[in-house]
Amino acid sequence: MSLLLASTVGSLGVAVGSVAVLEPGDKISFRRGACLSALGFIFFLSLFDFLNHMALRTRTGSRIRKKYHLTSPDVLEISNKVVSAVQAALSCVTGSIVCMWSCTRSFLHASHFMSEAYAWFGASYFFYDIWSMYRVHASISEHKKDQKSDAGHIVNVRLYLKEQPVIVMHHLFIGSFGFLIIVYLRGGLGDCIFGFVYLMELSTPFVSMRGILSRLKMKSTQLYVTNGLIMIGTFFICRVAMFPYLCYLYSELVGLPYFEAIMALPRGCKISIAILLLPQMYWFVLMVLGAIKVFSLKTNKQQNGNTSLNSSCGNNKSIKRLNGKLHS
């Protein structure tokens, strides 16, 4: 456990130290970037394993698992969500630094090294997360004793890709093509826009918290409802409305009407926006439908409870009247 903790803290510390000496306008060399990617893999993998070790192999973890009746798949799922929230926090810190530096100087041309640095470091997360989500999926299958043979691993992979096609494609796109755009294919574009893209992760901690609360059997709590509302609000602002807002800022900058400015964008840029935006809209619709379902269930329970209470009160009154007649 100490080795995992040292690996987690050390990899992040070395990554921060390797870029702390740079000036804001510096570029990340391929050698430094490759080191950042390797450190990113070490960090996310070590953090995931450390959290699993804490939950599965320590007394404190055992007490927590017994208290909330957590299975091994539950633990893996919670660990995955915590790592996701940590990555989101790092992304938001990066986005804040980049926006404060670049957007206040030039919307289209000012750059900050943190944008490229985190593209190298953070790209590793998306490939790690594909593996981590598969670990959760495989653990659920093993827990249900659905797959036991070696062939079961192939079946698990197929089922995993069938059940999670959107998130897997999203991660592959961001980790590969998105990385290439920020580091190599930006065509002289500055980092302000990419800073906003990093800030899309602001909603992720609330998405992760929803998954964690669900595993802890806390769906009926006020905390779950409050977190869900915040999640939907931040998701809409940071992942759905952000792209139209950036297009508006661009139209104001170039002095063109809104839709003309969008049509004037390079084809690759428009395709990239569509690939990024469409999954966000899909997930947002799912979130809204889920929220409607939760509130509908709560409303039905309250109505059923009131009906039962009124029925009980009515029966009590009838019994009292009957007793009164018998005594008279």
Automatic annotation (TrEMBL):
Gene designation per UniProt: LOC107223338
Region (Disordered): 308-328
The TLC domain, residue ranges: 73-296
Record field: transmembrane: 36-56, 166-187, 193-213, 225-251, 271-292
Compositionally biased tracts (Basic residues): 318-328
Source superkingdom: Eukaryota
Keywords: Membrane, Transmembrane, Transmembrane helix
Organism for this UniProt entry: Neodiprion lecontei (Redheaded pine sawfly)
Intracellular or extracellular location(s): Membrane
This protein's record includes keyword Cytoplasm: no
Protein name, as recorded: Protein FAM57A isoform X2
Keyword Transit peptide (UniProt): no
An annotated GO cellular component: endoplasmic reticulum
Biased composition (Polar residues): 308-317
Topology of this chain in the membrane: Multi-pass membrane protein
GO BP terms in the entry: lipid homeostasis
